[in-house]
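anyone seen this seq b4? input:
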Amino acid sequence: MSKIEEVIQAGGTVIEALPATQFRVELESGHKIIAYLCSKMRRFYIRVLLGDWVTVEMSPYDLEKAGLPIDTRCNLNPDHGISTVTLYEWIS
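predicted toks r here
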């Protein structure tokens, strides 16, 4: 059997830093979730600060937790005319 996993991508702002490389993120829709670093973000010790704009990936089965898979951060909200900065390309 092939394992094809669907993910939901959303953007949000980091509002709180939690222990064990976890962060509380407020999504564009106003929902607050817990996000954790994964893959290259954890491997290369890329820092995420309060107020950073991040892209998260959530499983459709658990919408309360999400991963920060790639480094797409920006210090300001993209609504203010700043585009998202991509430092590393996602390698599937």
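The chain has a mean pLDDT of 75. The helical segments are 40-43. kinda curious what u guys think
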